Amino acid sequence: MEIRTLAARERLQVAAMLDGWRLAEGWTAGDRFRQQAEFDPSWGDENVFVAVEQERVLASLSILPRHLKILGHVIPVGGIGNLYTDLGSRGRGIATELLERACDAMRARGLELAVIFPGTPPATPEFFRKRGWHSWGGQQTILRADPEAPSRAENLSARSSGDEFEIQPVGPHDERALQSVKSIHAAYAASRSGTVVRDDALWRSCLQVTPAPTEEFWIARRGGLTVAYARASIVDDVLTVTELGRFEDGADALSRLIASMLEPRTDDPLTRGAAVGRVASSELRSFLILPTFDDIGLTIALEHHGIRSHPMDDLRASFRCVNLTGFASRLDVDLFPDEDGCAFLTRILPPDAMVFWPADRF
User: Fold this and answer.
1) What CATH number should be reported for the domain holding residue 262?
2) Which one of 55, 57, 101, 296 has the largest count of C-beta atoms within 10 Å of its C-beta?
3) Are 127 and 183 contained in the same domain?
4) pTM (two decimals)
5) Residue that terminates a domain, selected from 312, 332, 352
6) What DSSP line would sit under 32-64, residue for residue?
7) What number of other Cβ atoms are within 10 A of residue 324's Cβ?
8) Using one digit for the tens of pLDDT, what is the confidence trace for 272-297?
9) How far apart are CA 100 and CA 307, in angstroms?
């Protein structure tokens, strides 16, 4: 068996193998791989590692270079995606070898931290912990309408003259709206660890390489100005907010926008998939998943509008320091004597201090 970087002629073979990994409604890892190859500015054959035996690809792994906000600093990281071994080749340690080769490559390329969002078994958080990775654990949130609260329609219509707003959909080519969204994203993410820094090329990519084939993207305007936005898709068969943001005075607008996502649609575009099409809009929108976030103002505003929050563990991120000394130096944080990468990450990345948008996952 040989482990090396991808040859161009093998792209179709890798995509076909990854089609065996279902990610979301009507969406496979193979689809995501094809989208990344076409739209992601950091994608390249040299960033894809494969295990090959007798000209057959047995496993794959992609490195997607990113810049991540950590403690107010911008850190060069390698996002790891498409880690998958063909069913008939599992149990041979291939994934471990791919991970080690990828970490060596990231270290040589100046990337100081590796990030992965564990997917299908056996690549679980425990799998990575045994291989020297730090499993970060936060709390995502289940949102439901409180049946004993005043109706959402009543809440949404109870506006003062100074609080008029409108909710509008956004398309990937709506440049005027997207400029406002980019400004909100930069402001909202400025003090939050875990968010990806996006330039224009990466913004175009994240609007094309979505977590699922169908996405909702809405903005809330007040007085003609965009003050909040949210994106949502069906992820793991449930309606999930894949990213959100607001200006400082936009908590109420964002809460109302999210509340509107819990309103059933007569002709719901998210229920048109082969399997989801058998689910009524009222069932699909009976609850909503928010990724781990730290916006107390939004939580209070949601409660005001009759939306209850139910915390749930989120163990979907794993880290590994591939250059611990360089990483600590960039953060201007001293290492303790004999402190390894896992201990360092445990110390500096508490569960309530990170925000990961599914829209940024690899």
Assistant:
1) 3.40.630.30
2) 57
3) no
4) 0.91
5) 312
6) HHHHHHHH-TT--GGGEEEEEETTEEEEEEEEE
7) 18
8) 765 666 789 999 999 999 988 788 89
9) 45
